[in-house]
Design a protein that fits this description.
The protein is built from 19 helices and 20 strands. It is of the alpha/beta class. It folds into four domains: 114 residues, Tetrapyrrole methylase, N-terminal domain (Cobalt-precorrin-4 Transmethylase, domain 1, 3-Layer(aba) Sandwich); 127 residues, Methyltransferase, Cobalt-precorrin-4 Transmethylase, Domain 2, CATH 3.30.950.10; 133 residues, Rossmann fold; 131 residues, Rossmann fold (3-Layer(aba) Sandwich). It binds S-adenosyl-L-homocysteine.
Length: 520
Amino acid sequence: MTGSAPGHVWLVGAGPGDPGLITVAGLTALRRAEVVLYDRLAPHELLAEAPEGALLLDAGKAADNHAMTQEQINTALIEHGLAGQRVVRLKGGDPYVFGRGGEEAMALAEAGVPCSVIPGVTSAIGGLAAGGVPVTHRAVATSFAVITGHEDPTKPETQVDWARLATAVDTLVVLMGVGRLEEIARALIAGGRDASTPAALVEQATTPKQRTVTATLATIAEAAQREGVRAPALLVVGQVAALQPMLDPRRLAPLAGKRVLVTRSRAQASTLVDALRLEGAYPLVLPAIEIEHRIDAKAIDRVTADLRAGAYRWVVFTSTNGVEVFLDALQEAGADARAFAGARICALGIATAGALADHGLIADLVPTEAVGEAVVTSLLAPGDLNGVRVLLPRAEGARDVLPDGLRTAGAEVDEVTLYLAAAPAEPPQDVLDAIRAGEVDAVTFTSSSTVKNLATLLGGDLSPLRGAVVACIGPVTAETARSLGLEPDAIATEHTIEGLMSALRESLHSGRTAAAKEVR
Ligand code: SAH
C-alpha cells in the first residue's frame, strides 16, 4: 500500500511478557497496524491482535541470533513509514529501557517519518513486582538504579561504573546480567556493597514459567547456577529482595501462578479466562465444545406456529446455547419474542436466565437446583402438569432425566433438537501437550459435554489430569467426571462461573495448607 503522505510509526512497549500488560494505547495502535515489527521479548500472543492481513515481521534480537540487524530494523521502519503505512514497532517492556527505541525514533525523525512512543511496563519494575519484589519499600529502599549487565564489569573500558553504583542507591536492578552474575556480584562487593545484601533473580517474569531464586549478593551466582536460571531474568540487589518470600504472588492469592485449563467453547470462555487472569492464574484454553447447529427447519416451523398459538404452557431452556440457537432459529422462521406471549418460561441456571434477559425475556421460573429431577418438582409447584404441553429446546444427546420426569408427571413434552456440543476438529496442540506433560495445575468443567469431549480429545483417557485440581460447575458435571475416572476436588454450590471460581479458590487454598502440613 503506497501513498504520497508518509505513514506513522508507533514505538510500542509491549510490557514484560504477560500479553495483558500492554497499555490500552499500545493495544489500540496494534489493532490498527498495517505492519508490525516485533522483538523476541514482546509477547507473541499479542500478534493475534493485529488486523487480519497485517504484515508481521520478526525483528529477532536474541542475543546470539539476530533475525535483523538494528540497521535493517531502522531501514524497514523508515521504508514502511515512507510508503504511507501504519507501523507498530512492538518491543518488550518499555521501548526506551535498553530497547534501542531512542535510536529508532531518531532515525525516523531524520527520515521525516512521524513517530509516537507508547510507553510500556518495564520488566525492571513490573517484572520485579510480579516476582514479589517491590523496587522501593518504605523505610527499606528509597532509591533504585536500573543497570545493563551486558557489559563486562571486569573490563576497564566498561561504561557502567559498578564501583560507584555499588553503594549509590538502595535497590540495584540489573537487566541482561544472567551470563555475568559472578563478575557483577564481585564488582559490587569490591565497590563496597555488603556481601550479605539480599539478592534475588526473577526469571521469565509475568509468564507461566516465572520463577524466583533468592540468596545474597555473595551467593546469588552460585544459586543461579544450581537452579539453572536462564535469560530473560532480572537481578535485584538490596534489602527489598528480602521481602520476596513474604510478597511472593503465590502466597498472596490462591490462584496466582496456577495454570488452569478452561474447556468451554471459544465463544464462552472469556468470562472465566478474565476471572482467572485477574487473580494471577494462567488460563490454558482448550475449547472442548464447539456448537454445531442441528436445526430441522420443519420442526422449528411447527413449534413456532404452536408457540405463537399459545399451545405451550411452558418453554424450558436448559442452557445459554439453547437460548441463543433457539431464538436465532425463531427469527429465521419469521417470529420474535412475542411468540412467547402465551407461554411461561423456565430457565435452568441464572446464566440461562441471563441469556434470556439479553433478548428481553424474563424467566417466570428459575429453579434453585438446576438438575433435571429438581426442575420437575419446581414445575409441578405452580400447578398440575397433567396434559400440559411443554416445549423443550435442547442439545442432541442431552440427558433424558428432565423429559422423562415431565412425562411421568403427565406433561406432553415437545423436544426440539437445536445443536450438538461436539468436540472441536482442530484442538490447540500446545495445550494438549501441556496436559500430557502434567503441566496443568487445575482443570475446570462447565458441563458434562466439556468432560466427555476432553476425554475424546485426549484419546479416551483423562488420566493425564489426575495430578490436577478438578473443579466442576455442578453435581451432574462432577458425576460425568467421576464416571470417566476423574475424581472432582471442587464442585460449585452456585452453578455459575463465579461459583466455579469460589470452589476453585477454596480447593487450591486448602490444597496448599494440606501440602504445607505435609512438609511440616
Ligand atoms: N525494554 C525492556 C528491556 C530490554 S533488555 C524492558 O523495559 O523490560 C532485555 C532484558 O530485560 C532481559 O535480558 C532481562 O534482563 C530483562 N527482561 C525482559 N523481560 C523479562 C522478563 N519477562 N523476565 C525477566 N527479565 C526480563
